[in-house]
């Protein structure tokens, strides 16, 4: 089912930044049937539906283990906990991401150490990592931002040389590839989110952790159930981070469509890229080794806020991912960072604007978005 895009007599069209209704309407009968199966089963937390989802995601990511948890943020926290990264440890990560990338490090008891981004890819700059390593560094946490993997080859090489763990924040990158290998299969852990707007989104919160390490997978499974095995026999201090069977059932309905959803996003991105050549709108760059799945289509443009307001007046929805850098967040002020410390990240925060790219975006709606952006941005 495609998105209906009503226009006025003057040719005005309403194009939302994201349209979940279009996707779910097409799957409505299957989603309702999945919900009925869970209700009838009486198994609402973990159980067969969650186990089935774990098997399918492990197969997709080409790893031995996938462990479903309550959110993408919990995935990061439990990965850190499973590696016994806590007080006194440092974790290197990107200065430009959703707050969970840094917040998870703090919640695990460790200190986030920020590195600036590559201006072209928006991702952690591998050339800047080594200078940030100290004797307290235990891990590197690259973020695969907007659906494109970070440049992992030099990161993995450095991590091996310095005996550091690598945790991939792949929240926006399920189905992305790096050098032909799936996101989430490259480090000790891959951490994914099933937040509704992701390429594979649930109807609520959810997340999953992937790994090829049997012992680490077992630790995560233990940590997500209060560290208890069997029930009421607590072997370590864990948390309550279990995926609901209902969310797993919904995700199993949508998972067979994931490749199609991502390819639709890639087609939309190619059309945008061509349309914005020779304009003041800087299209995102996909690295040659990356298979970009465009969870967001983030352009760079001067006077971003003014453009977003003008587009909204013409019916075009946009979003800003993200309006500030992590080091300058109020919650992290004790780290002592100042404006200018991470110039590439700060510029990205000022210039990024995400245009509609959801799979159900119609050709007519995309043409309208392009026309309005070109007319307003020049």
Explain what the structure shows.
It contains twelve helices and twelve strands. It has two domains: 28-255, 3-Layer(aba) Sandwich (Aspartate Aminotransferase, domain 2); 256-377, Aspartate Aminotransferase, domain 1, CATH 3.90.1150. Helix 2 (28-41) runs antiparallel to helix 8 and helix 3 crosses helix 8 (245-254). The radius of gyration is 21 Å and the shape is globular. The chain is an alpha/beta fold. The strands form three sheets. Strands 1-9-8-5-4-2-3 form a seven-stranded mixed β-sheet, sandwiched between helices. It has a three-stranded antiparallel β-sheet with strand order 7-6-10, with no helix packed on it. It has a two-stranded antiparallel sheet with strand order 11-12. The longest helix has 18 residues, at 258-275. The protein has helices at 20-26, 28-41, 48-61, 72-82, 100-107, 152-162, 214-223, 245-254, 258-275, 304-313, 343-351, 363-377, and strands at residues 65-69, 90-94, 111-115, 137-141, 165-169, 177-178, 181-182, 189-193, 207-211, 290-291, 297-300, 352-355.
